[in-house]
Amino acid sequence: MAPASATTLVIPCTPDPANNRWSCTNRPNTEIIDDHVTVGHLQRSRNYFFCRQDGDGPLGTHWIYTRADNGNYGFARGNDVFETDGLPDC
Predict the structure, then answer these.
(1) Distance separating alpha carbons of residues 24 and 21, to the nearest angstrom
(2) Spatial CA neighbour of 38 closest among 49, 47, 51, 29
(3) Alpha-carbon distance 52 to 85, whole Å?
(4) In what order do the strands lie in the sheet with 73-77?
(5) Helix (H) or strand (E) holding 61
(6) What is the pLDDT of residues 39-74, one digit of tens each?
(7) Quick one: which of 3, 12, 31, 32 could link to 74 by a disulfide (CB 3.0–4.6 Å)?
């Protein structure tokens, strides 16, 4: 396991099949976006995510669907969430 930062230990996403979600490591204070607007943040470094969507861009950007701490739903940038290969497509 490689550290994502000095304080975040990267642990692969683990499934929670009973609730159709995955627990994944993310950067603290991850921005959650819906329709190009920030709708919330994830303050902790481990949160639940539902699925992954490929986006446009030269590097094959991924977007990870989740619920922000304030209850709004949206997408985290793939580079803010680690080890997401097991997540289903949205």
Answers:
(1) 10
(2) 29
(3) 9
(4) 14-16, 21-25, 46-54, 62-67, 73-77, 30-34, 37-42
(5) none
(6) 999 999 999 999 999 876 555 588 999 999 999 999
(7) 32
Out of 4-13, 21-30, 71-80, pick the least confident.
4-13
How far are the Cα atoms of 29, 37, 40, 46 from residue 86, in angstroms, in the given order?
23, 27, 24, 16
pTM across the whole model: 0.83
Q: What CA–CA distance (Å, rounded) separates 40 from 26?
A: 14
Amino acid found at 86? G
Tokens of residue 12, six digits:
């692969």
Question: CA-based angle 51:52:58, to the nearest 5?
Answer: 170
* Alpha-carbon gap, residue 34 to 39, rounded angstroms: 6
- C-beta separation of 11 from 83 below 8 A: yes
